[in-house]
Structure formats: structure tokens, C-alpha cells
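Reopening this ticket.

The earlier resolution said the output was attached, but the attachment link was broken on my side. Pasting everything inline this time so it's all in one place.
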Amino acid sequence: MVRRDLLSTDRYLAPGGPRARELYDTIAGLPIVSPHTHVDAELFAAGARLDPPGRLFVGSDHYVLRLLYSRGIALERLGAAPRDGGPHETDDRAVWRLFARHIDLFAATPTGLWLRDTLEHVFGIEERLTPSSADAIYDQVERQLASPAFAPMALLDRFRIECLGTTDPAGSTLAAHAGLAPRIRPTFRPDAVVALDDPGWRSALAALEAAAGREIDDHDAFLDALAERRAAFRELGATATDHAATSADTSRLPAAEVASIFGAALAGTITEAAARRFEAHMLNEFARQSLEDGLVMQLHIGSLRDHNSALAARFGRDVGGDIPVATDWTRGLRPLLDELGNDARLQLVLYTLDESTYSRELAPLAGHYPSVALGSPWWFHDSPGGIERFLDRVTETAGLANLAGFVDDARSLVAVPVRHDLWRRQVCVWLARKAAAGIVDEDDAPRLARELAYDLARRTFRLDRQTPE
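Inline output:
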């Protein structure tokens, strides 16, 4: 049986021996740089508080929802509201109890580790979550969530979060960001206005028109509106954009074809094939815009969204039915990199769900082009094993200097310190092993640990400046 005090102080470090603990002690107290999350900026408004336990740990966490659903638990029972207004569980405590009854599903998963660490190190609860302890733990968590100490701004201080990046659609008014910079920064996310065949495209375009204060009746007007919003994001502290796509294709189209495709979307006659060509073209276009305004361009590639069509139709997007697909980075990025990849003023950060590309494509790309940095393991691979596999497969070719540091991609504020701590511990285990093997110089290990925990993220995301030198 693992002692709780050992779990608390040396968790995950044992494979690296005493040296891993020594390295961890040098970086454990560093501030957290969290340049990309899905935390809502409105959470930091006066009087706002975190969701109650069931929604905080279950309903808003697609990692949890997808695994519970895989065992036949209907999403309605977990608090998900059907789009047709059908019945669903509205008792937050009931959702928490159901979660506790199936907690064994999360054994050996990163979700299980995050839950345990969050309860212990954020809420001070060492008792294991079980069906019999569920109500007592719910009451302890909810009591703390309602206290001033758990006000979102207070948690930023407690967690030593130096910078937190939200993710905001291109059509956001950014009203919630007023007064929050530079600690909380928006991130420009234009996916909704680029997916011309998505059912929500019209409403996303209308929001962009309203935010930009102009009618968008052709592609030129579209580009002007995007440029205006990017400038507005930068004024509120943004240093990055974020783009999600199934494919890494960045083929640039002739101007006449782009205008024709956009016109077809306005007329309601867009085809799926044309929409995908437009998305590829716009990734190229966004890179050009980033070269001009200095915003770091993040590419999250390789997730086939809403694979479960029935769930997407019933509950809407992002309910846990997203599945990784193979990605051809080398051919896909070549059009963009041929034109812009040699210009160090451009900063591309690449994330993948296709681990087979780490050593075959991503590390060689980052190890060659001055514009490319590798993002940390994302989504399914943000785990102890995933972090180790990533470092092993990319550093021999790309080196550590071409990594982007750690991005937690968290949806919950209380998950941010837990995920960063896991990354820091795994980095120290990896460095201790490499030092023991003579691959990393023993004297360099503390410096490299700090870079991976803190310095690389600050540098990659240009947190000390708004535009490139």
C-alpha cells in the first residue's frame, strides 16, 4: 500500500531516483505560465465562482464524459442537456454520486491522476473518492468552492499563475477581458468563421460582423474583419492564435478561387470539398498575418471532430466523440513553410494527436525551420507515459531548445497547477535518467529542467513583447 505522505511528496519521481527529486526541488516553486487554456475569461468577473463539484469535475470535462459513456452511461445522466430540450439530470450531487460509483474506470489513466491530485493538493482532501465517501467529499469541495479563498482571482495567486491564456472566437467582443491583461490574455481562435460548411457558420460570421462593425459580403471584407479583430486581441494582451484542423494541408489557392468559394458559402451552396480547400488556404493566410502582427500561431492538428454523429446531433459539438487521425505534416505544411518557414519572425507551434509523426516528421521539421517549435503532448498524450514518449522521440532530432515548453490546454482552473506539476515531475524523471546515462551533462540538468518548466513557454509565446524583434 502506498503511503499518503510518500504519494504527496514523491509521486511519479521514483523512476528517476534521488536525482529526480533534487531536480524537481529546483523548479517546483517556479511560477506557472499557462499560455493556452479553455478557461472562460468571464470566470474572473467580480462575484464569479467555480462550478459546483459535479459540473466542475464531470460535466465540463470531456475526458471524464467519454470514458463514462464508453461504459454505457447516458450523457443525460451526467448532466448533459440534449439540444431538443429533453430530460437530463439537473441535480449536481446526483452527477457526482454517479461519477463516484464508476471511479474505478479511471484507474491508471491521467484523468484518475489529475482527480486524485486535485482533491489532495488543491482541496486538501486525502480520502479516496468512493461511493461511500462521495457525499462527504462533495460537501468539503462545495464548501471550499463557495469560500473567498477559492475565488478565481485568489486561485491565480495561490497557484502562482503568472500568465493564463484563454481561447476566444474571432467574433468575441472581448468585453470580459477588460482590465485583465497582462496576467490573463485572450487567444484568437477563428475556426468557427473558417469552417464554411459548418451549421453554425452563419451565426459565427454574424458575430464577427458585429464585433468588427462591418458587413462581410465578400472575401476581402472577411480578411479586413479578421485583421481588425486580431488588432483588438493584441490590444488586450494577446500574443497567440490557435487553429484546429483535421488536416495539416496549407495549400494556397488562387485569389479568384478563394473569392468564389467564399461567395458560394454566402449563397448557401458550399460543398464539403471546397470548404476543406478553403480551410487549408486560410491556414496559409493566417501564417502570413502572424508574420505581420507577431501573434504566435498554434496548430492543433489530427482530431476528427464529432466522430459519433448521433451524439453530435443530440448534444452538439465536443461531447467526447473526437478521435485521432493520421496526419501528413511533411507534405501538408510544405506550401506554408516554402513561403514563410525560413523567416524567424514567424512562430509556429505544432501539436499532434498522431504520435507516429513525432520522430518521423515533427522533430525534423522543428530541427530545421527557424519558424517551427513543437508543442507539448496534447489531449490523449498529456500523461506520464505520453510525456516520456514525446521527449524520447523528439529531442535527439529537434533538441530541447526547439520545444515550446508546456501547454496544459485545461478547461478547469483547478486543473492548471496539477497538470503543470505532473509535467515538471516527469521532466525531472526524464532528465535524471538521461544524466545517469551520460546523455545529459549533470551540470546542465537544472538549467534544462527550468527551461522545460518555465523559460521555453515564456520565450515561445512572446510574453515579454507584443511583436517579434
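Reporter confirms the inline version is readable. The domain at 51-149 is CATH 1.10.2020.10 (uronate isomerase, domain 2, chain A). Residues 1-7 have pLDDT under 50 and may be disordered.
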